[in-house]
Write a structure and sequence with these properties.
9 strands; two-stranded antiparallel ribbon; 5-stranded antiparallel β-sheet; DUF4283; Alpha-Beta Plaits; disordered N terminus; alpha+beta
Length: 165
Amino acid sequence: MGHEKLPDLGLVGEEGNETNDWIVVGRLIVDRNLNRAGVMAILRNIWPEKEAPAIGEVGQNTYSIYFVSEELILKALEGNPWSIMGHYLNLKKWEANTTVAELDFRVFRRLNLKRAEQEEIENQRSAKRAKSSVIIEEFMEEHGHFIYDPNSFYRDYKGPKRETW
């Protein structure tokens, strides 16, 4: 598209409006257009209407979500990235009068555990003791294909697409 879009939820326009603080924009990191109705149904299952009364599409594989409270938006951002149809949904907080094109969806938050703590969790079946060893790491999504990494819950970029089956 040649023009830049602002999320249109019928809530945007007044500067200083508190509801503008509770909007996120999420982009699915995928190289094809996913079924809009399927994605919307999954988003609605994750965030019911009482938590997120407005969910809309603002571009190809890009969605805006309005939350009813700051607590809910923080919870959604802490769970980032989300998995939708086997692909990342990277959420970014939307600031008033910012276009979707200005948001950088390439940076993710990812939780990593040190190897010793991973083994401790596996042996004891308890994440409580290893909670203090969680490291938040940011990484960049590169354009390309993803393959499954058995050592990580998340997919990691491995270069050009290859058959693994």
